[in-house]
Amino acid sequence: MMLVGTSGWQYRDWRGRFYPERLPQRLWLEHFAAGFATVEVNNAFYRLPERDTFAAWRARTPDDFCVAVKMSRYLTHIKRLREPAEPVARFLGRATALGDRLGPVLVQLPPNLQADVDALDATLRLFPADVRVAVEPRHPSWWTDATRRVLEQRRAALVWADRLGRPVAPRWRTTDFGYLRLHEGRARPWPRYGRTALGSWVSRLADAFGPDEPAYVYFNNDPGGAAIVDAVAFAALARRAGHRVTRVPSAPPPSADG
């Protein structure tokens, strides 16, 4: 099963492209959740919402909706994985208000944070077994057997990431679910993805994960509604190849150049 969505839903330039012109912004989440079955929440990285906010998101979305949440930068960029117990506990104390809507927790590491597998292991062991965790290292020193072993032992996914149509991380399968982030394509209008690039990612996910293993796919190329267009195109290619995919809008919005 491929769960396809975008990284966030509150983008003003999506008005008129995805959101109706007259739809109040306070209803955008409901509109988004009618079209997609999952979203990745990035604003928790910058400012962790209160528990009541997560609870409200749960109340405003359908039963089959899934919210992946990016870990607060306090743990990853300020503490740099040191003394993780309090930041992880505070995060879980709020994000778990999503209940069964809570999807994977995205732990994105700073680009200048070199490998420290002991610190990563100490962090991952703090998450309960029923919370999926996806880790996105961004320094090349992490690409070692030791890193892979920690991820496998803690049943955490290595994030597969794409920029300009190319993988920026090893395509390791480290657990029973996948997590793909698409940051920027090479097609026009910028930052769209072309069909060849999208089709390649469909094939890579299908080769690595079975039909009953979830693969979360989030488009982070939000300018001009490119993420919406590409998510719809990705889902169509996956369905055409015979894979199960969560809902996407029935037709793409206008292209990023209007």
TrEMBL record:
Pfam families: DUF72
Source domain of life: Bacteria
Chain segments annotated as transmembrane: none
SUPFAM superfamilies for this protein: TM1631-like
InterPro entries, alphabetized: DUF72, UPF0759_sf
Protein name as annotated: DUF72 domain-containing protein
Organism whose genome encodes this protein: Micromonospora acroterricola
